[in-house]
Design brief:
- The structure is a single chain.
- The N and C termini lie far apart (49 Å).
- By secondary structure, the chain is mainly α.
- The protein folds into 2 domains: 173 residues, no CATH class; 91 residues.
Length: 281
């Protein structure tokens, strides 16, 4: 017996952020829309019922641990990018999960509405006083009473997180929050684009480090030039354009040997170290 499609609060928070900022996430469904969350007030009764769901779910899973075969079969029909709406549908379609939620007064939709409301309130509580607060999806519609409730019940909500996720750590959540508070949200899109692109460019930036065919170099140059168009930072735009030009210029060389490319990548790494780590200054 397994409890399927029961996301953690962190999962909900990531989906909410993805629906607001991400390019691959699907449109935010009803359960996470501002129109829904602004009309739901968090309460002791609601939080107690969410805790009861989490406790019963944990007890069932401990009594009936899922096998690898069950885990694989659960994932077999999980196609596309998950959304809160798709998770709610799956929860309602699974008899065990549907019965568990019903015992505590929830449907898949109403349970995820409660979770998403809690996630919205938590985001505002943690990001208060930073640019993140106003940038968070749905920020303008979060009821101040829900933020106050979250702050007053932080310990209990932390216990809820621990019940839903055995790997949850309040210390790690606090550390991540401190880092996020120190990252300007206007830089975040650039950071997300920059990190994987630096990994692919680094082998080409050291003199004589990479031997590649001209066609693969041209392909890398074109991708790098295209990426440059999507950065907000003018410095990153210039440095990625320069790197694209240098890779294209050396496309037919046996090995890359470009001081401008190496210097540009160094500036990009410096930019990332200053703006993307969230280190306290």
């Amino acid at each position: 017996m397994t409890i399927r499609w029961m996301p953690t609060l962190l999962t909900i928070a990531l989906l909410l952020v993805g629906s607001g900022y991400g390019q691959t996430a699907q449109a935010a469904p009803l359960a996470s829309s501002p129109a829904s969350t602004q009309h739901l007030l968090l309460s002791d009764d609601l939080l107690d019922r969410m805790m009861a769901v989490a406790r019963e779910r944990r007890a069932i899973e401990q009594a009936h641990p899922a096998s690898d075969e069950e885990d694989d079969s659960d994932d077999g029909d999980d196609t596309g990018v998950p959304t809160i709406a798709s998770m709610a549908s799956r929860m309602d379609a699974d008899p065990t999960t549907r019965a568990l939620l019903a015992r505590h007064g929830f449907t898949g939709q109403s349970y995820l509405l409660a979770m998403s409301t809690l996630a919205h309130a938590g985001a505002q509580a943690r990001m208060a006083g930073t640019k993140w607060a106003s940038k968070t999806p749905g920020a303008a519609t979060v009821d101040p009473r829900n933020i106050s409730f979250y702050n007053q019940h932080a310990a209990k909500i932390s216990a809820l997180n621990a019940l839903n996720d055995p790997d949850y750590s309040p210390e790690e959540e606090a550390r991540i929050t401190r880092k996020l508070r120190n990252i300007d949200p206007e830089d975040m899109d650039d950071c997300v684009l920059l990190v994987p692109s630096v990994a692919s460019l680094t082998p080409h930036a050291m003199p004589g480090s990479t031997e590649a065919s001209p066609s693969s170099r041209i392909e890398l140059a074109n991708a790098t030039a295209k990426l440059a168009e999507h950065f907000h930072s003018e410095q990153l735009k210039k440095d990625f354009t320069l790197m694209a030009d240098e890779i294209r210029r050396h496309a037919h060389a046996k090995r890359m040997d470009s001081t401008p490319l190496t210097n540009a990548l160094g500036r990009v790494n410096d930019w990332a170290a200053d703006r993307c780590t969230g280190d306290e200054k």
